[in-house]
């Protein structure tokens, strides 16, 4: 009787093909989540043709030092008070042109929401978490005012309408209906959040 030498061989010629097909399958079917990041518009490369004069009273300055302290309009302020202060500035309505604003009409503050600009400046040593928290409070001030007006006009919050409008799974008929509503509320309180160059001190 003949004796077999060694272990039986396995034909592995097609294993590379199978591995390659599995790799393609996983690449095609896997979804990779990407971070949205901060929604900010960079200024245009070329300055505008017309020289725009911005009054100092229409600029709400927020400075963050390296210790995380806030200097708002040249006065120290707690972080929990920032949102309300920003809202009061945005809807001040000093020139009386804003019919929906509920501000005090202080002549030393912003004329109307269209002219109001929030300027944020931070130190290079400012903690990133502090920077993001301040950003959230300032954006939250815009969203609070927009929510109020959206509820008055359309009976629902702006943030909900905007999220539904930006959702790619929303039917096109619903998105078309939301487009004008979202744009109208955004124009009532345009988000003009400017970030000045960071300081090295």
Automatic annotation (TrEMBL):
One of its GO terms (cellular component) is plasma membrane. GO terms for biological process: protein transport. Keywords: Cell membrane, Membrane, Protein transport, Transmembrane, Transmembrane helix, Transport. It is a single-pass membrane protein; Single-pass type II membrane protein. Its main location: membrane. InterPro entries: ExbD. It comes from the Bacteria. This is Biopolymer transporter ExbD. GO terms for molecular function: transmembrane transporter activity. The lineage of its organism: Bacteria, Pseudomonadati, Bacteroidota, Flavobacteriia, Flavobacteriales. It comes from Flagellimonas hymeniacidonis.
């Amino acid at each position: 009787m003949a004796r077999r030498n060694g272990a039986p061989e396995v034909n592995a010629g097609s294993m590379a093909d199978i591995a390659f097909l599995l790799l393609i399958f996983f690449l095609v079917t896997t979804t990779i989540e990407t971070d949205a990041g901060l929604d900010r518009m960079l200024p245009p490369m070329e300055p505008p043709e017309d020289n725009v004069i911005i009054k100092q009273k229409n600029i709400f300055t927020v400075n963050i030092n390296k210790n995380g302290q806030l200097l708002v309009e040249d006065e120290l302020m707690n972080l929990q008070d920032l949102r309300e202060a920003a809202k009061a500035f945005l809807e001040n309505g000093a020139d009386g042109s804003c019919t929906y604003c509920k501000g005090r009409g202080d002549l030393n503050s912003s004329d109307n929401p269209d002219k109001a600009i929030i300027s944020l400046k931070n130190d290079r040593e400012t903690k990133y978490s502090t920077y993001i928290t301040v950003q959230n409070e300032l954006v939250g001030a815009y969203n609070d005012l927009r929510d109020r007006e959206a509820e008055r006009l359309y009976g629902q919050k702006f943030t909900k309408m905007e999220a539904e409008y930006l959702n790619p799974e929303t039917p096109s008929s619903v998105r078309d209906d939301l487009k004008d509503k979202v744009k109208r509320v955004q124009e009532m309180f345009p988000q003009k959040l400017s970030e000045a160059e960071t300081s090295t001190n």
